[in-house]
Amino acid sequence: MGALVDSDDLADWLGLTTINTARAELLLELASDLVRAELDQIIDYVADDEVDLIARGANVLLLPQLPVWEVSNVETVDDAGETTILVAGTDYRFEAGEDHRLGILRRLPIVRSVWRDGLTVSVTYSHGYGTGGSTGEDVVALPGAIKAAVLRVSARGYTNPAGKRQETMGRYSYTDGATTPGLVLTAGDKHDLDRFYPGHRAGAK
After folding, report:
1. Taking every pair of C-alpha atoms in the chain, what is the biggest distance, in angstroms?
2. Strand partners, 94
3. Could you tell me the residue ranges of all domains in the chain?
4. For residue 169, what are the β-bridge partners?
5. Which of 3-17, 63-77, 148-162 is predicted with the least confidence, judged by mean pLDDT?
6. In the sheet where 83-85 sits, what is the strand order?
7. Among candidates 2, 1, 28, which has minimal Cα distance to 13?
8. What average pLDDT does the segment 166-180 reach?
């Protein structure tokens, strides 16, 4: 996966009229991967992704990648490897939730119905952020908070790759190279990303 933000955005963020494109793109890609790793999310739009979930005897299954735009297929796999295709509205219900960030499959009928403990449930679904719009890769664009985190990390790496801090007192100048390097997520970055952790599902009750 590539960078979530392009070099023109980084140039604008830094207030530069020109930018070293190769360096900027490398930093943006590294910063994007840091954000993906922190959130444990792909973030980019992926159509018809397939995932095998192991049920734990609950009424709901949580889809791992958010936001979820469509669930196109759900089937169970028994101990003998036989598959059963489930029917939406009869066997399960997909609940998108606020901003499509709920992403659960609820077993039907709701009363006393659960996903059997240990059952493998194979799901095909589309998830992630796109370029803005309503369908396919044009689904809701990357949220500003995620974009800003990528830009902040990249900007720190671009302007101060060693993470040095300089202090001047009169004629004396002191540079400390032991401070936080540029390519890390700060506590502030993580705070801004908080709502995008998969455990913080909007609309979950």
Report:
1. 79
2. 105
3. 7-43+151-196, 46-137
4. 172
5. 148-162
6. 46-54, 120-127, 68-77, 83-85
7. 28
8. 48
**29 CB contacts (<8 Å, ≥6 apart)?**
2, 3
Angle formed by the axes of helices 21-39 and 144-159, nearest 10°? 130
Task: Give the start-end residues of each E strand in the chain.
Answer: 46-54, 60-62, 68-77, 83-85, 92-95, 104-107, 120-127, 165-169, 172-176
**Distance, CA of 84 to CA of 117 (rounded, Å):** 16
CA distance 184 to 98: 30
Coil, strand, or helix at residue 53? strand
The total of other beta-carbon atoms located within 10 Å of residue 127's CB is 26
Residue 51 DSSP SS3 = strand
How far from each other are the two terminal CA atoms of the chain, in whole angstroms? 33
Q: Is the pLDDT of residue 181 over 70?
A: no
Its pTM stands at 0.86
Query: Who has greater pLDDT, 168 or 41?
Result: 41
Query: 67-106: per-residue pLDDT in tens?
Result: 999 999 999 998 888 999 999 999 999 999 988 999 999 9
